[in-house]
What does this fold into?
Amino acid sequence: MRKRIDLHTHSLLSDGELLPSELARRACVLGHEAIAITDHIDASNINTITNLIDAVEDIGDNWDITVIPGAEITHAPVEIIEKLAVRARRLGAEVIVVHGETLVEPVIPGTNHAAVSCPEVDILAHPGLITIEDVELARENDVTLEISARKGHCLGNGHVAAIAGEVGVPIVIDTDTHAPGDLIDYEMARRIGLGAGLTESGVEEALVRNPRRLLKRNGIL
It folds into this structure.
């Protein structure tokens, strides 16, 4: 079984169904090398990152999986996305995701632009019909774009894959897991990448090289 890295999951510290420990256990059984738990935050609950860190440390000391404390800035005013990202990093979030302009939610226009303008952001999740100008900004600020396995959010995958390839921006394939059945193994993630229009080598980059590069840059692997 090929090892997998998923950098976008949720526990019951936000709107997920699983404790961090059960989420990590299920990911471990599916062959994950690492997962980031990136619960939804805005200014109201950003301090929950510290609770997540306590849980993650216990898991990491005892199980054969790297569990990374993170955060997903979600539906926040675009004017404070950078401030939230900086604060989340100071609180200990090691992977910072911004909830992008998915086709299926009323995300504030300009969220994609604010995210890719902030070097503190690691991943712009499910960015929908992101513009080429914003993809170029993502390249400039080393922000990775996401292909999503999640229902609804996946509707923009083909556009994201094509425009990221054109500009030369790294892609990762994540699940945005909220429930036990959302986690997927390497082979299913590979198929999602191919379905989005990636080549086999592009899938290899999205599933192996790009997430590992991001984690090494952040001092995790």
